[in-house]
Amino acid sequence: MLERLFGLAEAGTTPRREVVGGVTTFLAMAYILFVQPAFLAAAGMDAGAVLTATCISSAIATLVMGLWARYPVALAPGMGLNAFFAFTVCGAMGIPWQEALGLVLTSGVLFILLGLFGLRQRIVALVPDGLKSAIAAGIGLFIAFIGLKEAGVLVPDANTFVHVGDLSSRWQPVLVSGVGFAVAGVGTVRRWSGAILLGIGASLATALLLGVTSFQGVVSMPPSLEPTAFAFSLDALLTPGHLGLVLLFLYSDLFDTVGTLVGVSTQAGLMKDGELPRGDRAFLADAIGTVAGGLLGTSTVTSYIESTAGVEAGARTGLASVVTGLLFLAALFFYPLVEMVGAGYPIDTLLITAADGPPSFNPHRLLIHPITAPALILVGTMMARSLSDIRWTDPLEGIPAFLTVAGIPLTFSIADGISFGLMSASALALLSGRARAVSWPLHLLAGILAARWGLSLAGWP
Question: How far apart are CA 232 and CA 142, in angstroms?
C-alpha cells in the first residue's frame, strides 16, 4: 500500500527512512508549538486554544501535502507572519485578534483562488529576487530582535529607544535564555536533529532549577478550541486601509512557500527540468492550512524550511509528511509542557511618557518569555542567510534591499519595512532612467503605498 501511494522504490527510499525523516522534521520545527501560543497570547488570544488550533491546522496542511502532493514538506504557522499578526496588526495597529483572523482567512481563500486562475507565478515574479531575499532577512532580524527582548537582554530606553538592561537584577531569565541558545547553537553547528527543540529543553531545565517557571505536568486532555474556533470577524475588510494587510499576508505566505518548496525539492532531487511536479497541489496544501488556521484560531500556515532536516535524514516522499502530521496531532495531549515552556517572567523597566506635559519616567512591568527566546534568535540567524543572495554591487538592488532589511526591525513593522523597499525600488528605477528594470505592476503598487504615506503625512488616518 505504501509503495502504491508514495512510490518509495522509484524515489530510492524505504519506509524506515521516511519515518526517521518525518520524525526529524517534526523535532526540527516543534519549537513552533511553544512559540506560537506565547506570540498570539500577546495579541489577547487564549494560549491553550491557539496550541490546539496550531496542532490541528498544521496536521491538516501537512497531511494534505503528504497524501496528495506527496512531498516531504511539513507546514505550520510561519515565523515572521505570527510576529506580524501579533505585534504589528494586533499590537501596533490595534486591530482585534478576531478581525486579524478574518484577514488571515481571507488571504487563504485568495491563495486558493490564485491557484485556480494560474496567477501564483505572476505574483511571485512581481517582486524582484533581491527584494524577496531582503524581506526574508529583515523578518529574521525582526524575530531575533523580539527574541533578545523576550530574553530580557534588551529593554526600552528613553534616549536610545532600546538598550541592554541591568542584567544584575534579571540574571535568571538571561541565564535561562543563554543556556538554551548555547545548546541550540552548538547543536545547529554539529547538525543535531531537533537542535532548536533541544535548546528549548535546556532552557526549560534551567528555568525549573532557577524558579523562573514551575512544573505543571506533562500530559493532559487537549485545551478547548472554543475561545478561538470560528471567532473570526470580517469587519476589517470594511476598512479600505486594512485591505492591504490581506495582500501582505498573502505575499509573505506565497514567497515563503515558493522558497521552501524550491529549496527542499532541490535538496531532495525532486525538481524535474527546473519545474516542480505537482506544484499546484503543494501550494493548495499551504492554502488549506491557512484557511484552517483562520477558522480555528491561529496565524498563517506555511511550508517550513526545517523540512530540509528530514530530507537530510532520508525523507524523499510524502510518507515523511504523513508521519510529521500525525505527530502534530499527538502533540495535542502535551499542553501542560507547552504551558511551562511559554510561561511569562515579569521584569521592571522604565518607560518615558509625554502626553500633554513634559516627558516623565514611569515604571512599567514587562512580561518576557525567556524559555522560547533562544528559538527566536536562532531562527532569525537562519533567515538572515538570504542576505548572501542580494547583489549588493548593484545599487538598484542593494539600496531597496537595505531599506527593507533595516526598516522591518527598526520600525517594528514588517509592513512598513516592505513598503520602504518597494517604494525605493520604484523611485530609484524611475529617477535613474531604468524604469524598465522594475515591472509596471510594482511601480503601481509602489505608487499606492506612496499615496498612503502621503495621506498619513497630511494627517489622514
Answer: 27
pLDDT(358) > 90: no
* 447 Cβ neighbours under 8 A, 6+ residues apart: 426
Query: In terms of Cα–Cα distance, which of 205, 147, 66 is closest to 382?
Result: 147
CA–CA separation, 451 and 446 (whole Å): 9
In a 10 Å sphere around its CB, with 0-12 CB exposed, 13-18 middle and 19+ buried, how is residue 118 labelled? exposed
Give the Cα separation of 14 and 2 in Å (integer): 10
Q: Mapped to the 3 state alphabet, what secondary structure does 327-371 carry?
A: HHHHHHHCHHHHHHHCCCEEEEEEEEECCCCCCEEEEEEEEECCC
Write down the pTM of the prediction. Answer: 0.74
On whether the CB atoms of residues 39 and 222 are closer than 8 A, the answer is no
Domain boundaries, the chain: 2-144+218-337, 391-451
Nearest-CA neighbor of 351 among 340, 338, 364? 364
DSSP for residue 89 = I
Asked whether the predicted pLDDT for residue 461 surpasses 50, the reply is: no
Compute the residue count for the chain: 461
Q: What is the mean pLDDT of residues 432-454?
A: 84
Q: How far apart are CA 154 and CA 145, in angstroms?
A: 8
**The residue to which cell 475588510 is assigned:** 237
Mean of the per-residue pLDDT values of the chain = 85
**Can you tell me whether residue 163 is helix, strand or coil?**
strand
Q: What is the dihedral of CA 175, 305, 132, 238, to 10 degrees?
A: -90
Q: Which residues of 155-175 are buried (b: 16+ CB within 10 A; e: fewer)?
A: bbeeeeeeeebeeeebebbbb
Lookup result for grid cell 532577512: 137
